[in-house]
Amino acid sequence: MSTPAIQVKDLHKSFGDNEVLKGIDFHVDNGEVVCVIGPSGSGKSTLLRCINRLEEANSGQVLVEGVDIFDPETDLDAVRSRIGMVFQQFNLFPHMSVLRNLTVAQEKVRGRSKKESVEIARANLDKVGLSGRENVYPGHLSGGQQQRVAIARALSMDPDMMLFDEPTSALDPELVGDVLDVMKTLASEGMTMMVVTHEMGFAREVGDKLVFMDGGVIVEEGDPREVLGNPQHQRTQAFLSKVL
Amino acid sequence: MKRSTRRRLVQGVLYAVLAALLLALVLAADWADIKTQFFASAGWTSWDSWGPLITVGAKNTIIYTVIAFAFGLLLALVLALMKLSPLGPYRWLATIYVEFFRGLPALLVIIFMAFGIPIAFQWTPPGGTVGAGLLALVMVGAAYMAETLRAGIQAVPKGQTEAARSLGMSSGRTTVTVVLPQAFRIVIPPLTNEFVLLIKDTALLSVIGMQVGEREVTTVARDFFSSGPTAGTATSLVQAAALYLVITIPLTQLVAWLERRQRRTR
Ligand SMILES: Nc1ncnc2c1ncn2[C@@H]1O[C@H](COP(=O)(O)OP(=O)(O)OP(=O)(O)O)[C@@H](O)[C@H]1O
Ligand SMILES: [Mg+2]
């Protein structure tokens, strides 16, 4: 059995008195697409952010490709550079052109030459359908375009896996499709992905596994078609009856 | 009476009062006296006055302002980063520094550096008396600019840092490439204001007694107050005022324009 891309063991996280993650166990295998759904405040974002340690967990373990990221000896920046992260609010660097957004970390973190990073950046812009926009500043792009640039920025680091936190929630409905299409392409190319989403259609069509979270625990997980079509737990049923 | 009629009547009265006040002022003023005291042609039309005022005074004012601003900004950046440090002692030191120097008159600090320190330690800061005065301006200016910079850094959204860190950038790299460039853009208007304040504060250096070639605008003007072509009149002081305004008004207009533009792009 090969090492899972991500393994989470008995993860606990509190903000003050508010225990947000109450013992999470799960794993993502290489090449797998795992979708996470659940009501607002159930801890989905917190879980995702604990995986690259943007959030500090209180106890438990997170192994990324077998490497314990809570171990003080671990080179956290190196691990993070192999995990692409896409945020709900895009978080592009507004003072840099689209091209610079895609090359800056390649040069400063990966140590690539300017020429090489520009080539890689152009290839990834092409992939998300935005070639020709290299010199535009993010503020002049639509939300959907910004999110695709953000995906291209993450891809330019050649990550082993991608984390998405509600990548389409801040978008106008007519712009959601373009972003989902990019994500579908990524999935079909075998990218390991963990996606927090409200897009049940995407989860059903693209996901290999669906995780339903509520109140800081994983209530149910399994094949997306199974979970969505025939939920076993009453809480899952209640949630799905509201969103479907 | 209709409401619009009443409003026009009130406005009319207000204008009439203003006109009467102005008229009284014009009639009461001794125009001949004002002309000889403030606008003596021996000063306003003579290079003997303008020469030293511009080539010595204005030149030194600008040089001193730029030096004090540059070093003050550097020190302010260190203080701002200390204030945002996760390490308590750094934060406390920076806070003590900022509160201390913001609470003192700049003039006191200048006198202290130029006279107090040399007497106490038999030691003069580099650059002599002028150097000591500039050091004081740097120390006081840095305290104000540190607060401005700290606010600017904190105004950069947290998501920017998170995006940079998730790409694998170190904390220092994130600060330099992502946070500070955005923070500086935010603080350009308030920093320009600090620059204008510094221009005016260089006049405080006139208390420390500078060599002839080192004097800034106010000191040069004060010399002409007691000697030279317009001695005994305030003409040289009014000329100095004109010089300051020529520099400061465009800058404050620039600040206003920058602020309008920033509001629009938000
Ligand atoms: N930085 C923080 N400080 C304090 N509490 C926080 C912080 N971040 C999240 N929380 C709390 O943790 C809980 C879980 O938040 P989280 O963002 O993980 O939920 P979520 O499942 O992603 O919800 P949503 O669907 O609304 O994004 C919420 O009650 C939230 O208020
Ligand atoms: Mg969330």
Automatic annotation (TrEMBL), chain A:
Q: Which residues form the ABC transporter domain?
A: 6-240
Q: Which InterPro entries does the UniProt entry name for this protein?
A: AAA+_ATPase, ABC_ATPase_HisP-typ, ABC_transporter-like_ATP-bd, ABC_transporter-like_CS, MetN_ABC_transporter-like, P-loop_NTPase
Its EC number is: 7.4.2.1
GO terms for molecular function, please?
Answer: ATP binding; ATP hydrolysis activity; ATPase-coupled polar amino acid-transporter activity
GO cellular component, as recorded = plasma membrane
Q: Which residues form a coiled coil?
A: none
The catalytic activity, as recorded, is:
a polar amino acid(out) + ATP + H2O = a polar amino acid(in) + ADP + phosphate + H(+)
Give the keywords, sorted. Amino-acid transport, ATP-binding, Cell membrane, Membrane, Nucleotide-binding, Transport
Is Cell membrane among the key words of this record?
A: yes
A Pfam family of the record is ABC_tran
The membrane topology noted for this protein in its Swiss-Prot or TrEMBL record is: Peripheral membrane protein
Location of this chain's protein in the cell: Cell membrane
> What superkingdom heads the lineage?
Bacteria
* Gene3D superfamilies in alphabetical order: P-loop containing nucleotide triphosphate hydrolases (3.40.50.300)
Which CDD domains does the UniProt entry name for this protein? ABC_HisP_GlnQ
Concerning its family, UniProt says:
Belongs to the ABC transporter superfamily.
Q: What is this protein called?
A: ABC-type polar-amino-acid transporter
What is the organism lineage in this UniProt record?
Bacteria, Bacillati, Actinomycetota, Actinomycetes, Propionibacteriales
Automatic annotation (TrEMBL), chain B:
Originating organism: Nocardioides currus
One Pfam assignment: BPD_transp_1
Q: Which family does it belong to?
A: Belongs to the binding-protein-dependent transport system permease family.
**Keywords tagged on the record:** Amino-acid transport, Cell membrane, Membrane, Transmembrane, Transmembrane helix, Transport
Give its localization. Answer: Cell membrane
Q: Which GO terms describe its molecular function?
A: transmembrane transporter activity
Bilayer-crossing residues are 62-82, 103-121, 237-258
Q: Which domain of life is it from?
A: Bacteria
Q: Which GO terms describe its cellular component?
A: ATP-binding cassette (ABC) transporter complex
Instruction: Name the chain's protein.
Output: ABC transporter permease
Subcellular location, principal:
membrane
Any one biological process term the GO annotation gives: amino acid transport
- Specify the ABC transmembrane type-1 domain's residue ranges: 58-256
InterPro entries with a match to the protein in the record? AA_ABC_transptr_permease_3TM (IPR010065), ArtM/GltK/GlnP/TcyL/YhdX-like (IPR043429), MetI-like (IPR000515), MetI-like_sf (IPR035906)
Q: Which PROSITE patterns match?
A: ABC_TM1
Membrane topology term: Multi-pass membrane protein
